[in-house]
Structure formats: C-alpha cells, structure tokens
Automatic annotation (TrEMBL):
PANTHER family: STRESS RESPONSE PROTEIN NHAX (PTHR46268), UNIVERSAL STRESS PROTEIN UP12 (PTHR46268:SF6). Transmembrane segments: none annotated. Belongs to the universal stress protein A family. The lineage of its organism: Archaea, Methanobacteriati, Methanobacteriota, Stenosarchaea group, Halobacteria. This is Universal stress protein. It comes from Haloarcula rubripromontorii. Residues 1-139 form the UspA domain. It comes from the Archaea.
C-alpha cells in the first residue's frame, strides 16, 4: 500500500499532472512536493543566478514558493494538505536522495522547455532507472 508519495515539481504542466495523479489515485497518502533549485539549465542561467544570491537557501525558497502555492491550490481542490520541501542541486540526485523515505515517486514525463530537456537530460528517465522505490510516470 502506498502511504507516502514524493512528487518532484517544477513549474511545468507535466509536474502539475503528476500531482493531480497522486491526489486522484492516492487520496489517503501523505504527499510531499519536492522542488529542486539550482540544477543545471541552458547556459547555467538559473543555477548561476541562485549561486550569486547573498542567501542561497532563502533565494531557493523564494523561487520554490510559486510552485508550492500552485501545488497547495491543487491539493485544496481534493481537500488534501501537502508537505513541501526545497533541495539545492541536481534534480536527479536530489530526488533519488529523498526517494528511499517514500513508498513511491510520482513525476511527470518531462518538464521545462525543449531546450531544457536537451541540455539537462531526461530527469524522469534517470529517476525511473535508479530509484530505490516504485516510480509512477504521469502523462
């Protein structure tokens, strides 16, 4: 039985679909939304901007808040409260480092723009191949 679910989210539609899948299909599970800040991006823009901040952790929290606000609104539609967490670093490593504490990971097939996917790589595929717990890929 799936009691604890990790839902990695960015600001993509696929990430929103992954959260909706978790909320619809596992209404009694504890859901944690994870946002990873400072990962690779085309030309290093997002990571560089974060690294140049005076307070990197505060800057990461601020960037994540928009994602979390959206996630909380979606969860409220299902009368569910979610937990949120911000990690710094590479998305695949951050997700895999947290995955063992959950019964499953639910994530979207891809996120970001086409250029993000080409430069950064396919996070879903790498998580799917290396996760210590079952991974559900939502489309």
């Amino acid at each position: 039985m799936i009691e604890r679910i990790l839902v990695p989210m960015d600001d993509s539609e696929m990430a929103r679909r992954a959260l909706a899948y978790a909320l619809e299909n596992h209404p009694d599970a504890e859901i944690t939304v994870l946002h990873v800040a400072g990962g690779p991006s085309p030309l290093g823009g997002a990571a560089t901007a974060l690294a140049l901040s005076d307070d990197v952790e505060a800057a990461a929290e601020e960037r994540a808040e928009e994602v979390f606000d959206d996630a909380r609104e979606r969860a409220a539609e299902y009368d569910v409260e979610i937990t949120t967490e911000v990690q710094l670093g590479h998305p695949v490593r951050a997700i895999l480092n947290r995955a063992a504490d959950f019964d499953a990971v639910v994530l979207g097939t891809h996120g970001g723009s086409l250029s993000d996917r080409l430069v950064v790589g396919n996070v879903a595929q790498k998580v799917f191949r290396n996760s210590p717990v079952p991974v559900i890929i939502a489309r």
